[in-house]
## 1
Amino acid sequence: MRLNTLVIALLIAMPMAAAKKSKTEAPIRVACVGNSVTYGYGLRNRDRDAYPVRLQEMLDEHYGSGRFVVGNFGRSGATLLYKGHRPYIQQPEFHQALEFKPDWVVIHLGLNDTDPRDWPDWKEGFIPDYRALIDSFRVVNPEARIAICLMTPIFDRHARFQSGTRDWHAQIQDAIRKVATGANVQIIDLYTPLHSRPDLFPDALHPNPEGAKILATTVYGALTGDYGGLKLPVLYSNGMVLPRNEHLLVEGRANARQHVQAVLSKDGKVVKESGAFTRADGSWSVELDHMQAGGPYTLTLTSKPLPPSDYQLYYPKHYPYDLLALKPKNKKASQIETLTIDSIWFGDVWLASGQSNMELRVDQCNTLDQDLADARRLSQRIHLYNMPARARTDAVEWPDSVLRFTNALQHMDFQGWTAATPEAVARFSAVAFNFARVLADSLEDVPIGIICNAVGGSTTESWVDRSTLEWELPNILSDWRNGDYGQPWARGRMTQNIALALDKESASYNTLQRHPYDPAYLFEAAVAPLEHYPIKGVLWYQGESNAHNIELHERLFTLLEQSWRDFFARRWHCEFQKKPSLPFYVVQLSSLPRPSWPAFRNSQRRLAEKLPDTWMAVSSDVGDAADVHYRTKRPVGERLALQALCHTYGKTIESEGPTLSSAVNGQNHTVALRFEHADGLTCSRGFEIAGHDGLFYPATIKIEGNKIILSSPSVDYPAYVRYGWQGFTDADLRNAAGLPASTFMTKVPFYEEQE
């Protein structure tokens, strides 16, 4: 590997590294090399809060004072590029870092290379320049352990975010990964732990003290391999449901250089065993292949350190340090740990999400007695995981405690798995429970798990991940509360909830306070914690808070499906496995006298027809003209279940209401509509027709098999037809299965178009 000429000259002028020191006689010297983020720019007390200072504290706490010496060699504005506007190798901190003769080096550079003075012209030098920088530390200490960092985020509020910084930041991250591979050094991800916390970056670039602490925690774990021991995602708990009949990976975290053993047993007898080694970031996954439906099972997970003789066999030199050799004060790193999960069932798991009509509980609905009777009958076959919000978005000002846990992405209450007892069902989503009820009755001996994380009033944009919005719709992230993207009601409610938010350092209003309606917030707080949990599909009931802007919602919902499919597909690790498309079953908005709702329902219908693996359940016939939270939710859950049974489970059943297939001009100034799913059509009202002037009049209805003939004395030549086109509609087109038709509008072709 060639060294940059300037670096060679600098190194020749320096004394060579001292003889190899004994790790038992001298402290391990850790050099934190970087730019302003490493330096601690923007921190009022950088000598206390900069991440290298915090890293020193953590190492002292866990391994004893004197075992490590951490040096901060950050330089504000420094570039990695040697031809950049402020090359790090020309700064005094670079010389000081070399003179420090570090044993471990942590390099975090690249953020300033996103400057238009640097990356566009000099990007070809980034990889060779980074390799030369790494080699410079290897010259002064051939035994040095090097770690390079994926950069911390730059958020959308940055002035140059859309003019190039976003794109160049991503390109530099990719270059850093290539450097790590080529130079055989450890890579530390500083991006992922902070990308969901824009509230910790006052200027969109530099973290505040809490953000610096997260940086230090991330670097500490990567250097030492100490990730706090054996852990499982929050949904992996007693009573859980895992998918049947598929390749299954159970995932978790543990300390580095550990062997994790999984033993699945039933009635005290071992059914399956599987093992894995933890990766450098502490992650691990074990296989539990193709279990048939049933249970209960017990899963026992054991983590223990690998014998030292196995270290070189399984781990490269630059992987996290030998915890046993460091002899931490906390002996947990060298102990065997065990976690046990009881009452595991193998079946199908569904995720129910959205806003208040999905959130509405069984005990708030008019079929309470019937639903609770079903719960008693099916309590051992349906398993619930409720994730209600810890604070409701009612018309109140939130106290400081709520504001703080909301910022920390702790807005959801993870209540754990429970059997569908009447007590649990009463507090659970009525739509979700009735969906699960129909599945449990229809699928013999298949346990059904249902997770509900709906949040009242939530917006579509709040459920889309940040990266997707940054690349596909970045403007929605910019000052959402004062812009035109969010519905005025939602923006007003958010403003009321966070009115008491204060920045502790400045004692002024905190403009970065988070709220569940914010773009990306609920993905980060309510979806990301599911950590790719193996769900069968999604039930979605949302849109009331986005009905003000149909065109925007069409973009957002398309992005939401893309976002969730990408997220949940990440559990399919094997290249040879087909990654099934995650199905979405959507509830169309119901009836309410709001002007935009007919067109919004029609838009939902068109989305369901256009988007892959997306189907819709109609609810307009059960709405309440005086209440957006109508109480008849049982048939809505049943209709979603019919769609799932048909399209996911392949049952030959009727799952759709009448669906328009064609419209043609008929005789005597009529229009003839032909329908699918049309056995036993009935209809007495709800249709309107218009001529080319666009003025609609109620239509006379005549049913002929799967056709409906419409006419009006006020329309000589029908050109348009619409159905159910009122906010609150009493339109009653149904088929023999009792399933209602969707609101729709269509244009009637001219005679020559028909020919």
## 2
Amino acid sequence: MNLNSGLTTVPSLLRHVVSNVHQGTDTFLLQKVKDKWEEISYQQVLHKADAISSYFLELGINKGDRLGLIIENSPEYVYYDQGLQQIGAVNVSIYPTLSESEIEYILKDSGVRSILVGNPFLFRKIIKVANNCVDLLRIIPVFNEYEKFLENINLNAGVIHLNALIAEGESQISQYQQEINHKRTSIQPSDLSSLIYTSGTTGIPKGVMLTHSNFVENVRVCLQQIPVIDEHETFLSFLPLSHVFERTATYHVCCARGCKIAFAQSLELLAKNMAEVKPTVMSCVPRLLERIHDKAMKSGTADGGVKAKLFLWAIETGKKHREIKEAGKTPGAFLSLQHKLADKLVFSKIKEKTGGRLKFMLSGGAALPKNVGEFFGNLGIKILEGFGLTETSPVMSVTEYHRQVYGTVGRIIPGIEVGIQDVETKEFITKQTHNTFNEDFECEEGEVVVRGHCVMKGYWNKPEETAQVIDPAGWFHTGDVGRFYKGNLKITDRIKNMLVNAYGKNIYPTPVENTYLKSPKIEQIFLLGDKREYVTAIIIPSKESMQETFDLKEEFFRLPEPFVAEKNIIDWIGQDIKRLSTELAKFERIKSFIVKRTPFTIEEGELTPSMKAKRKVIEQKFARAIDDMYLQEVETE
């Protein structure tokens, strides 16, 4: 079922669902309150949205004004977003992990008039910078007892609890209902819907301008490419709605199709929430899938003996069954019987931990290692991969439900062009669309460029930066290197990540890092070697594996020295480095490494909010240790 072509704006999606798909009393959102999942109907959401719209109209908020959110995924996010979107205001969602200075920059650059705040920690950040933000009129906490944080503080902006704001707005709905309806229907597809700030791995944050058309067309074509999503789905949402991936792939898709959204309590409680909610669809990031893979492999083989043999037999049986089906053939009777037995004895137990109802999981935000995708395919859990950037709304390509090519990010979505351009000469190697798809097509790699409905309007207040990434012909330059493989897009790495060794060899870190991440001992890895004679790395081991192997206490991970000096730990990791290096070309192999005690984090400025390593920051921060490593090699070959 295709999305109604008359739907062209974000607020039109939910209204269409209530008019044509569900009753107003049907459940839209689910939230865990104490020990119970509370159901929230479409009617309740739309009523609160109207109350919020009424409050803002009374405050004098106009079409195009920017209204901010710095809050965890929750029903309050939806109320507020629907309330501002339908009067033509612009959603400015801010990553909760950003520093005070970054938050202040975004508030000032975008001219945010109000901001919804999710918890006391974030509230303290906001009130510290609020008086520097002259456009800010209202600070809106969603938690109780916020007043204690305001003692001896004089704020220029007013502070009102969201519940009080909604109550005040409810009393004004009758006065503003006609105006709300008029504003909602007068929004144009080209109007700005959201500013999403992205700093990438370098530079100050840039506000990506995404229109109503960007979002709605992205949802429309993704549903066309994955038609199995229907109004009976339950999505479990845990990736931040401040990120465009979760906003589009979960929130907007559910608004468009009429699916339920259950909000996970936290990453720590995700497994418990999956078992309780029993989702049918989830958006996720590769690292979550890698962890599930690692735990399943460890649990299945740790005890050895018959149990381990049964587990490995089941995985191999699943692999044979999957490969035959993917080749378009029908598995024989004996293999089918073996597969049923493997599913009953092994696969079903793993599936139960996801709730047992998953149709598929959608992986995005980074490359999913091919072996991890194949592992889930062997279990019968379908993993679809997508690719895009904040600047592309975000989806440019996504795996078709019926056609899996592991190690790729799927088929180009309808309505756009994707080109592969030679990095040096800028000549096009190929231009592909959804309709030119050929499952035998392959090409050389180059920069991935895109043109069409998914491309942003530009960067807010930054025409020069916009011109640097969108050329006169309308092609947006992603900065990613990729190629087509079996008709699907395959991403190699970022151009800026490319290392050129002292002998002129080009090395893309991501595929090399993914090879070493096959080791259950390794949590994170950062490849080095630009302008050097050989490749080295900073490695962060799996904390759980280290504790189990070496009986380490928490104090070990709190020591001030950032790098581990214990030879037994270094040798332990070196065993897997040596084993996995055989899968790589000699010039790609890690020759030396240092072991970092704790992971890279957003808070330390080492990762972007979308969890990409900031290469320059890391190299500068640990320059001395890196230089010492090149002087004192840890041999692994």
## 3
Amino acid sequence: MTDRVSAEGAGMVERQNPATHAALDPYRNSVRTQGRCYPDLHEHVLALAREDRLVIVDEPINKDTEMHPLVRWQYRGGIPETDRRAFLFTQPTDAKGRRYGAAVLVAGLAANREVYRIGFGKPLDEIGATWVKAMAAPVAPRLVTEAACQEIAIIGDALDAPGMALDGLPVPISTPGWDNAPYLSAGHYITKDPDTGLQNLGNYRGQLKGPRRLGMNPSVELRAGIYAHWLKYKARGEKMPCCVVIGCPPAVSYAAVQKMPESLDELAVAGALAGGPINLVRAKTVDLLVPAEAEIVIEGWIDTEFLEPEAPFGESHGYVNLQEYNAFMEVTAITRRRNPILTSFISQVTPSESSVIRRVAMEPVYLNHLRSALGIRGVKRVAMHEPLTSLYAVIAIQMERGTPETEVWRALYGASSLHRFAGKWIIAVDDDIDPENADALFWAMSYRCQPQHDLKVLEHKDAGHGPRGPHDGGESAAVLINALLKGKFAPVALPRREFMENAKAIWERLGLPPLKPEVPWHGYDLGDWPEDLARQAEMAVHGDYFQLGAELVAQRRSDVEMNAPVPRKPTPE
């Protein structure tokens, strides 16, 4: 491994430079064909190593019991988001001791925002605008005749030899102890509309059921494009041609997991993200186009007559999805490049790689929808809550102070309508509330919201992605909460900024543990702070509080009740 505990056992970590690790040698010579302007997965892995965002595990690791649990610890072990890394396993084994001829990359596309940035190829503050532009102006793919993804092709009966089909792929078990098989978690399924010929690229789980049989769960509740295609082929009485890509240029993976209108070709959007057309090549046994720089491509036909049991499998909503009937695919070919890298998303309980990869793109899409598509004034930011809730359930909208209440409600209703499945709890907050801080959201909901006036329930919301309960009935609801200040409030009850900053300097001088300030970390004025009370507070910090006490004697009264407010002079405008 790149990181290992020293012999002294004192917690010291001896690090090897990932960029010079010999295990990366097979990936150092990617070929740039026909004007390719985007990195393939091999180049992405090298970029991760150069920026010290890659842990190379160069020893046997059991993909069925050890691999995902190892990576899971960086999400459930108190590791700060900024310190999370991608993991490259160069010697995967399985529960029966088998070895594999492919490496496995876990959390390699979005272990955190920095890993996403490296794959995306743009600074973080440009990613949102790039997504909006890419969806508005896709770049058509380019057809090529020779491709890295077909350097090795195993077709037809050749798949029946041991280790030559799905049994030769080191697909990890995501949730050992609950999942009933290894599942593709980063399998990008490509199908096409039989009427229009438009291809769809989407990421779905795939259960390994046999050397030549792969499951397919289309997440029907999300109305995935592949499901619409499946229904059309079923109506025709035909099997559906399909290709599953495992490992590909990062731009393609980012497009595969994004929720887009059905009229958009995800591979064309990927081209716009990459700044040039994605190279595609014709598959060997089905009439589909696949990314030429893919690592592994599985070709075959999805049955439209029969379904069979699939799952249990741990899901991103944080619960195990129990067994249900779903589709399956008969494999007709597997093509791959030499020295392939199989990608596996770490999903399930969030935060995870799958939540980061969706969040970085979806938040700017929501913001653009409210600001540009709907023209709502005062929207500053949209934040989708990630820990445990998996983005779709809780959405916060940060508004500028003084935004008219009509615009606040337009924003709440607008956010509830963008996706049929997203937004069970949608909360509008002021710009002093950190929308990523659940404690701050509860604070605003507790004291800036009166439910009888500031809460609306929208019935008949699509139930979306989540565990099935006894009262679902296929429907849910959206709760819209206006948690903005409705007038002037007294100051936030923390020391004023200058006193906190001075105390921080003392803290650091004393060598106390490093501070990580959390908003709010100082008090601030919310409009209801009369000049006389400001004067009294100044007297206190200058030690003149007994002088103030003498002044208060003059205001003694016998005709008031305990806790009655003191009459105040209006603050000059």
## 4
Amino acid sequence: MIVLSTLIAKRCKTNDTINYYKNVASQTSSTIQDLVILNMNLITFLLRASWGKVVLAMFAGVASGLGAAGMLALITRTLHEPNATGEMLLWGFVAVTLFVLIMRAISEVILIGLGQAMVATLRMQLSRQILASPVRDLEVLGMHRLMATLTADVSTIATAFVTLPMLCIQIATVIGCLLYLGWLSWFLALGVVSFMSVGVIIFKMYEGRAVRSLKSAREANDDLHHHFRAMTEGAKELKLHSRRRTVFISQGLQAAITDYEKKFVAGMSTYTIAGSWSSLLLYAAIGLLLFGLPLLQDVPPETMTGYILVLLYMMSPFELIVDALPGFGRAGVSLKKVEALGLSLSNPIQEGEEVLPPSEILETAYSPEGKSWSRLEFVGVTHQYHHEREDHNFSLGPVNLSFHPGEVVFLIGGNGCGKTTLAMLLLGLYTPEEGEIRLDGECITEQHREDYRQLFSAVFSDFYLFETFLGLDTPELEMKANEYLHQLELDHKVKVENGRLSTLELSRGQRKRLALLTALLEDRSFYVFDEWAADQDPVFKNLFYKKFLPMLRTAGKAVLVITHDDQYFTDADRCIKLNFGKITQISEPAIVQI
């Protein structure tokens, strides 16, 4: 029994060992596969440009590298043949030098220009993709992730472009040196290549670990941007509460900075160690040639000198190549991060969508003035979202509503009941999960949603104010703007010159009045105001409800106002009350019960 138990134990131990090595082999294979895919994606992206220019730049880089190797061969010959320093070798040296410098300049200029053009295209594609993506998707991703992509990731890919010309030239130089070594002695060249191959294998083994650390660092960078955003947007709150500020710095910001630092240092250090091992093998090859080979066979002095000189010369481009590889590793991680966010670089435009050049966009843009409608309705519309006070999703609807031009509707209800979500559905910024939105009986689908959104002008509770009236170029624009500035009592602080507001350094209430001014200048057929009066003093509240809303009604505009100002409910044509995502009352304002 003891013997049998021992055999079983050994067998189990052997099986465990086999399984362990199988798992290691599987993980190594997976890592290598991931690295190949990562590098191929990066190379495909980097070379997605004018193939003619790419080929010309690569050819010039290779020619420069081979020319540098030829120059080294010429120098070696001159050193070993003192009598050969004639006029022909002199002119040959001058010609090769000029050739190397000219080819290097051509390669670098073409690739730098091409690289920056691709980066500019990348930035535009990302920006277009963000603006084309559903608002709900952007909210789920988070602004900190989007900003990290537009800044850190694009900058990392741009850096890879900057190093690409140098990398091509150095690779060509190494190849040229190896060819010259083979011309001197193919046997010794084979030994050098073997050493370099071992170095490459060791480097790739370390690279997998380095890329994993850089991926983790990139994830930590998202968290770091989140804390930076909290610090800048919450600076006033942090200044007012010293304990909160201390905890934010020590437990939040400091932890995020340290986490990114550790992971980034781990990744780059692993690259450095891998590069050092690779360089060590090249130095070992020099040592074996210099001290070991003469003990085994006689080597002509000119061959030995040529080999040592070429290997020493090759050390510099070889180390430059190794130093450049971490940048390409980071660029590959950034490229994968962008694609993981759903902003695909290879397919920047959503399926079925055509992005037109700016001139064509202006020509085919939807004209709200030319669109008349008589009925906009919600038919069984539902939408789910995360309720800020609940752990589960909150459901809005089913909603059945209708709106008409020349009508002012108030949307009322408690906080978190779904008022803003209903407004986002109305504006076409959220998509109904069930039910339909119909305009004059026609269902609004994805094909029509962009045109449908052009019916609306809105001032959100978290509004953004542009300093120029983008897209508004009517002849009487400045006259109307100055008139509204006077009515909103802002003409003493703000001027409109060449379609630009002179300042935005105002209080929140004043900036919200400027947002109202911009909405009025847009002259759309449907206006949505989300708690516009919440930041206004009684004078401007009264101006909004008693002057501007009746003005819009008289002009035949449909208006939806989200409000808690119950003293003005009688100024609405209808009041719609929401309670926990359900419409509980649609009535004339005189009988609204709060």
